[in-house]
Amino acid sequence: MAERINRDTRGVYIIAATPFTDRGEIDHDSLLSLVDFYIGHGVTGLTILGMMGEANKMTGDERRAVIDTVLSRSGDLPVVVGVSDAGLANLTDLASYAMDKGAAGVMVAPSAGPAREDRIEGYFHAVCEALGPEVPVCFQDFPLATGLPVSPALIRRLSQERDQIVMLKHEDWPGLTKITQLRKQEEAAGVARLSILCGNGGLYLPQELQRGADGAMTGFAYPEALVQTVALHHAGRVDEAEDLFDRYIPILRHEQQPGFGLAVRKYVLMKRGAIASAATRAPGPKMSAVDAAETDRLMARLEARLKG
Prior knowledge:
The chain is of the alpha/beta class. It has helices at residues 28-40, 60-74, 88-101, 117-131, 143-146, 152-161, 176-185, 205-211, 223-234, 238-246, 249-255, 261-271, 289-307; strands at residues 11-15, 45-48, 79-82, 105-108, 137-141, 165-170, 195-198, 215-216. Pyruvate binds at residue 217.
């Protein structure tokens, strides 16, 4: 049984893509291969059924099938399951299924609605009540996707009042000041530590680590870049961590194109042998021949840069 996430969790919890066939069906063989690929590159854990995992395009049965496939392969590697849903009953049902199967925790984003903090606060209390105190929760703070800014004060208050909210997936942008504020709060007596793993493709990972983040919870077709950057930073080799990370910036930036980056990520994963097809589920972005050639060039330049 994998260790559950807690307030001291750190490392790289890679956001796993969901492989599809060219006909739009979940490719479970490629999903197994992808888990092996991530494990082979040294990730600390996996996060499945996130926004970039295209969970919103899946049926409930498909989500359960993805959980089954991943957990059948992950062994002792912790797996966090995204369970955000428009309906609280659907959310708690999927979370219960995931935890019963051996998940390390669940990830929940604020529900759609007015951008009022009292509403978001009430929602997370309702979620925690429904899940029960034994289910560790990662609070997904991604205002660019949800349209719901959340203050450090609210995140801290929820984490203090609900022991099971042990982790923040930090994806605010710009958000470095938020990390600083959250860590500053922990200097006060009685304030519990909160694990902070960062998203946004890792674009700002070196700076986020320097501000006090514990690692990354994001997707990138070169997971080893995230793993090695975090490991070097935790070893106190801060400049080396940033120097290594800088080599990947051109292709990482290319993969972070809004509305299109997932197609790039899946194409690179396919070229690296992790999955059989670069298909996204409709409606989703598709690579043209020009896009593919452009990405091939970036991959070749990265390879040369790493050898140099």
